[in-house]
Design goal:
The protein is of the alpha/beta class. Helix content is 44%, strand content 15%. It has a single domain, classed as Rossmann fold (3-Layer(aba) Sandwich), CATH 3.40.50.720. Helix 5 links the parallel strand 5 and strand 6. This is SDR family oxidoreductase.
C-alpha cells in the first residue's frame, strides 16, 4: 500500500501562487496529488509550479480572476474534463483589508471589502467545483479563516466579520454537501510567522498595527501576537500545509463541518 496521503487525487488550489496556497500545493503534490493552481499573478504561479515539477510532481497553472464566476466555472469544467474529477479544492485567496482602524474612522468601503471579497470568492469557487466532486469519489473542500472570527478586540471589524462569515459558510456548506459525499473543513491559522519572508501580504496587513506600538511587522508578529497564544509562537507555513494534507486525505474521513484550529492557542475551542 502506498504511503502517499493524496495519491491519484486531483486538487485545485485557488490562490495557489500565494504563501499559504503555494505551501499547500507543494505538500499536496509531494503526497501524490495532481495539482491545478489558480491565481491572478502568473509569475507567482510559475514559481510554485517550478518547485513542484522539480520535485517530480504534476502541476498545471491557470491565470484566472476568482471574482469572475463564468471564468472560474469554465476552468473547473476544463479540469474535470481533463482529469475526470475534482477531488480536493482549497480556497487560499487573499483580499487586502484594513486592520487597526476603529469604527469612528473606518469607511463603509473598508468595512465591506473583506466581507464581500472573501465570501464572494468562497461562493464562486465552491459552486464551481462542487458539481464535479463527490458521489463515488469522496470530495473535500478546504477553506481558510482567521482567529478574528472569535476575538473581541477593537480595530478589526471588517476582518473579524469576514472571518466569522467564512467559518459559518464552511459549516453550512458541509451540511448541504454531505449527502453528495463531500466534506467541508475550515482551517483557522493565526498570522503565519514565516509568511512575510515567503512574499505574502502580511507585511502590508500588519504595518499599521505594528507602527502604532512602535514595532516592525516582524517584531509585532514575534512579540504581541505570538505571546498572546498558549504556545507563545505562531504557526508556520509547513504546519498549515501538512495539516491541510491530512484533512484532505481519507485519514480525516470522519471530519466535516468543523474548524481546524491552528492558532497556537490564541483561541481555545
Amino acid at each position: 500500500m502506498s504511503g502517499l496521503l493524496l495519491e491519484n487525487r486531483n486538487a485545485v488550489i485557488y490562490g495557489g501562487g500565494g504563501a499559504i496556497g503555494g505551501a499547500i500545493a507543494r505538500v499536496f503534490a509531494r503526497e501524490g496529488a495532481r495539482i491545478f493552481i489558480v491565481g491572478r499573478t502568473q509569475a507567482k504561479l510559475d514559481a510554485v509550479a517550478r518547485d513542484i515539477a522539480a520535485a517530480g510532481g504534476t502541476v498545471e497553472t491557470a491565470h484566472v480572476d476568482v471574482l469572475d464566476q463564468p471564468a472560474v466555472e469554465k476552468h473547473a469544467d476544463e479540469i474535470a474534463a481533463t482529469a475526470g474529477s475534482i477531488d480536493i479544492a482549497l480556497n487560499a485567496v487573499s483580499v487586502m483589508h484594513d486592520q487597526g482602524t476603529l469604527l469612528a474612522d473606518l469607511s463603509l468601503e473598508e468595512f465591506m471589502r473583506p466581507i464581500d471579497g472573501f465570501l464572494r470568492t468562497l461562493f464562486i469557487t465552491s459552486k464551481a467545483v462542487a458539481r464535479h466532486m463527490g458521489r463515488e469519489r469522496p470530495g473535500v473542500i478546504l477553506n481558510l479563516s482567521e482567529p478574528g472570527a472569535k476575538l473581541a478586540i477593537g480595530g478589526i471589524l471588517g476582518h473579524g466579520v469576514s472571518a466569522a462569515g467564512k467559518e459559518a459558510f464552511s459549516r453550512l456548506l458541509a451540511a448541504e454537501l454531505a449527502p453528495s459525499n463531500i466534506r467541508v473543513i475550515d482551517i483557522r491559522p493565526h498570522a503565519v510567522i514565516d509568511a512575510p519572508a515567503a512574499g505574502s501580504y502580511t507585511t502590508d496587513l500588519f504595518k499599521q498595527s505594528a507602527a502604532s506600538v512602535g514595532q516592525s511587522v516582524q517584531e509585532f508578529l514575534e512579540g504581541g501576537l505570538a505571546q498572546g497564544t498558549l504556545l507563545k509562537r505562531l504557526p508556520t507555513l509547513s504546519e498549515i500545509a501538512e495539516t491541510a494534507a491530512f484533512l484532505a486525505s481519507d485519514r480525516a474521513g470522519a471530519m466535516t463541518g468543523t474548524v481546524a484550529n491552528l492558532s497556537g492557542g490564541a483561541l481555545v475551542d
